[in-house]
Every structure is written in structure tokens, then in C-alpha cells.
Write a structure and sequence with these properties.
The chain is mainly beta and about 160 residues long. The protein has 2 helices and 11 strands; from the N terminus they run E-E-E-H-E-E-E-E-E-E-E-E-H. The chain has an 8-stranded mixed beta sheet. The chain has a 3-stranded antiparallel beta sheet with strand order 1-2-5, with no helix packed on it. The longest helix is centred in the last third of the chain and has 11 residues. The protein is globular, with a radius of gyration of 15 Å.
Length: about 160
């Protein structure tokens, strides 16, 4: 874990929701779907797929916003409305964490572009792999293995 310089601290814009990351991310992604564009007010959502056991809210609480789906839960700060992370049935055992919540996100670079069928013209994320939709479940093992070897690291 030392090569990841863990633990990391994170917070929403106003600082009322504070988080700690104690396990290395499985992969870094840029989701270009229309929902992520609208939820982030940007060209894509930059996320770190974190093991749920290595992520915790240590101060404050979140509220559910975004799609309000029983299968996908977008967690927001109730005060500043920052979108801080997502939990989903399809992400069993993982949390999709908004990387820009980190106290130091300067090192984060997407490894995988997903939903590029919705990508806005001219947007370049720097990811080395891409999918027109979401990666198929059978690809996640090899993506995580490649990210462990080649993905960006802090410091």
C-alpha cells in the first residue's frame, strides 16, 4: 500500500462531508454518459473505483440525489450539493468515488473512458482504453490488473 501513499483524506466543497480512503483504487475512469455530464456539469465524471471496505465517511452525512434509482444511489453533501460518490447494485463491493473530492487529486488521470458514444466533441481525457458503453463485466479483471501495473499514482 505504500506506493499509493494511503490513507487519503477527502471532502466536499464546503467541508461538511469528510471521507477517508484506506485501500488503493481498482481503476480510474472517465464516464462520458449524458447523465454524468449533467450531474457533474462537465464533459465527464472522473471517478476512482474503490473497494467499499477501504472507503468511509468520517464526518457528516450524505443525501441521495441525481437519478434517485434503487439500483444507483448518487450521494451528495446536503449543504453544498457536491456529488461525492455513487453506490450501485452493479458495483457490489465497490464505491464509485468522485476523485476531485481528494485533498490532493493532482495525480488522478482516467485509465478508462466509458460511454464514449455520448462523448462531447473535442473532449480528451487522457485515458488509454475506451468503450462505447460500459465495459463488459468480463473486462473488469483485466482492466484492474492493467491499472495496477500502469495507472497513475500519487507523489
Amino acid at each position: 500500500m505504500s506506493h499509493w501513499l494511503l490513507p487519503w483524506t477527502a471532502s466536499c466543497l464546503c467541508g461538511r462531508v469528510k471521507m477517508r480512503v484506506t485501500e488503493a483504487p481498482a481503476v480510474a475512469t472517465a464516464c462520458h454518459c449524458k447523465a454524468c455530464q449533467k450531474l457533474s456539469s462537465g464533459p465527464y465524471s472522473l471517478t476512482l473505483l474503490l473497494p467499499a471496505a477501504g472507503f468511509e465517511v468520517i464526518e457528516g452525512a450524505t443525501e441521495i440525489g441525481g437519478l434517485h434509482s434503487p439500483d444507483v444511489r448518487h450521494h451528495y453533501c446536503p449543504h453544498c450539493k457536491s456529488w461525492v460518490y455513487t453506490t450501485a447494485t452493479a458495483l457490489a463491493g465497490f464505491v464509485n468515488f468522485r476523485a476531485t473530492m481528494l485533498e490532493d487529486a493532482s495525480w488522478v488521470m482516467p485509465f478508462v473512458d466509458m460511454q464514449i458514444a455520448d462523448k462531447l466533441p473535442g473532449v480528451v481525457s487522457g485515458a488509454s482504453r475506451s468503450y462505447p458503453g460500459f465495459p463488459p463485466p468480463e473486462d473488469y479483471g483485466s482492466l484492474m490488473e492493467a491499472f495496477a501495473k500502469e495507472g497513475a499514482r500519487p507523489g
